[in-house]
Amino acid sequence: MLSALNNRHYIVVTKMKIALKKNRFILLTLWLLLFALQAKAGLLEDMRKNYGNAMQEKSTCDALWQRILADDSPHDALFLAYKGGICMGMAKHSKLAGKKVEFLNMGKKLIDDAVRMNGENVEIRFIRYSVQVNVPSVFGYNKNKLTDRKFIMEHLQDIRNEKQRTEIRAFMDQHAVK
Fold it and tell me: CA–CA distance from 79 to each of 42, 150, 154, 169 (Å)?
């Protein structure tokens, strides 16, 4: 009888240990997922905040590009658009013609994919517009300037962040399509 009780006790304790290990694993997985989501949001916010500087400063562009390359989590359309924009910045700052073309093609694909995924997003359309007004026409990536400009101007009020809305408005005023 005592042996049966000890055996039952052993089984119950073993099951409790297994359940505890599973719960720890689930908690650890949830914590890591939350951490990854926060890191992703942080990178998107950094790309948003530094997008203009990245187009002007090679060091800012390089730093963002390295962070983008290190991030292997799945991405939404807005992230892809910013990644494409930063990629275009890499093309601008690259000294090697082959690298320029490689970055340009990659950036174009990322931005166009983002527009296909969510073409009603003003920010995504702004990224494409900002690239197309700055890329030399010889590359042929300028076909959407008029439609993007019209869309952006009609939906500028949809951008909730006032600072971002003001910066986009200033860019639009400086870069009218001819």
Answer: 11, 23, 23, 21
* Number of domains observed in the structure of the chain: 1
Strand runs (DSSP E) across the chain, as ranges?
A: none
Q: Name the packing angle between helices 145-155 and 162-174 (round to 10°).
A: 140
Longest dimension (CA), the chain: 94
pLDDT tens column, 79-121: 999 999 999 999 999 999 999 999 999 999 999 999 999 999 9
Q: What is the pLDDT of residues 117-161, one digit of tens each?
A: 999 999 999 999 999 999 998 889 999 999 999 999 999 999 999
In sequence order, the 6+-apart residues with CB closer than 8 A to the CB of 52 are 167, 171
**pTM above the 0.85 mark?**
no
Of the candidates 35, 40, 90, 38, the residue with the CA atom closest to the CA atom of residue 62: 90
Domain of residue 97 covers 2-174
